[in-house]
């Protein structure tokens, strides 16, 4: 939601409160016995105004907070991306590095899904596969159909996957069903949204954004009350506005007396 839209929504809610207050000022004409009517009117208008004007703005608070932090911070954020090896992972990494605002791109880990691996083969795979490619830095088989490995920064993860697939088929006849490369993209905080919009659609999934700004935004989200509670609060605010309009004369008189008393004691 744009700033001008947010401003208009807030102004409209304030106008709703002005309407409640103005209606309450008519109580000398409609009678104090209608105080209950004013309270109900204030609560109802406050609820409606909160639901239509404040709740939509409330939804945008995290994004507005992120924008403010981005303008005042020079830190970097890390975009997590899962890239299917159905695509050319090397080309994806190289093309992503060229996007304005990207500081670095690294393949942090690789998940490979395979046919069911017999227990008799697991030990063989864990001892032999790391030696297939000198760029493999870690390798393990957490379950009978999953392999996890990491490769050196700057190396081609697709090469490692292809070598593993060829070797597996040769010695055991087992297939790789699919594989995913987990990629970390370091981005200037002010360019996160721009970079995300330029990433190719299709065989990639953005798994999340991490960094100091994202942590602050998540803290704001955690501290925010439930939206329904905000709407109800707006209802009570409308009710209090109505009560203030009904008793404005009494409130003004009390305030005048307090000021005179303060001046007298000085």
DSSP helix fraction? 55-70%
| Structural class by secondary-structure content | alpha+beta
Question: How big is the Rg?
Answer: 31 Å
Which geometry do the CA atoms define?
Answer: elongated
Strand order in space, largest sheet: 3-4-2-5-1-6
Mean pLDDT: 84
Low-confidence stretches: none
Terminus-to-terminus distance: 51 Å
Listing every helix as H and every strand as E from the N terminus to the C terminus, the arrangement reads HHHHEHEHEEHEHEHHH
Folded structure, characterized:
With 266 residues, the protein is of the alpha+beta class. It folds into two domains: 3-67 and 221-265; 75-210, no CATH class. It contains eleven helices and six strands. The protein has helices spanning 3-25, 27-30, 35-59, 61-72, 89-97, 119-128, 157-171, 192-198, 212-223, 227-246, 248-265, and strands spanning 76-84, 102-114, 136-143, 146-151, 176-188, 204-211. It has a six-stranded antiparallel β-sheet. The longest helix is centred in the first third of the chain and has 25 residues, at 35-59. The chain is elongated and about 95 Å long. The two termini are 51 Å apart. 24% of the residues are buried. The mean pLDDT is 84. Keywords: Membrane, Transmembrane, Transmembrane helix. The chain crosses the membrane at residues 6-26, 35-58, 230-255.
């Amino acid at each position: 939601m744009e700033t001008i839209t947010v401003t208009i929504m807030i102004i409209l809610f304030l106008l709703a409160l002005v309407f409640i207050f103005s209606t309450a000022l008519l109580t000398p004409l409609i009678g104090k016995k209608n105080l209950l009517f004013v309270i109900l009117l204030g609560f109802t208008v406050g609820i409606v105004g909160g639901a239509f004007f404040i709740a939509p703005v409330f939804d945008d608070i995290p994004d507005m907070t992120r924008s403010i932090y981005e303008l005042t911070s020079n830190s970097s954020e890390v975009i997590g991306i899962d890239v299917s090896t159905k695509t050319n992972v090397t080309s994806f990494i190289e093309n992503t590095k060229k996007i304005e605002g990207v500081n670095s791109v690294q393949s942090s880990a690789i998940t490979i899904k395979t046919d069911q691996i017999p227990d008799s083969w697991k030990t063989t795979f864990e001892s032999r596969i790391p030696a297939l490619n000198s760029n493999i830095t870690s390798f393990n088989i957490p379950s009978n159909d999953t392999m996890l490995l990491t490769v050196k920064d700057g190396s081609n993860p697709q090469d490692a996957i292809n070598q593993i697939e060829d070797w597996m088929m040769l010695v055991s006849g087992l297939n790789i069903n699919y594989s995913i490369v987990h990629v970390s993209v370091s981005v200037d905080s002010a360019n996160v949204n721009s970079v995300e919009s330029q990433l190719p659609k299709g065989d990639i999934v953005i798994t999340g954004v991490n960094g100091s700004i994202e942590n602050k935004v998540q803290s704001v989200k955690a501290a925010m009350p439930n939206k329904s509670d905000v709407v109800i609060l707006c209802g009570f605010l409308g009710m209090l506005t109505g009560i203030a309009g009904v008793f404005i004369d009494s409130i003004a008189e009390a305030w005048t007396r307090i000021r005179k008393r303060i001046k007298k004691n000085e």
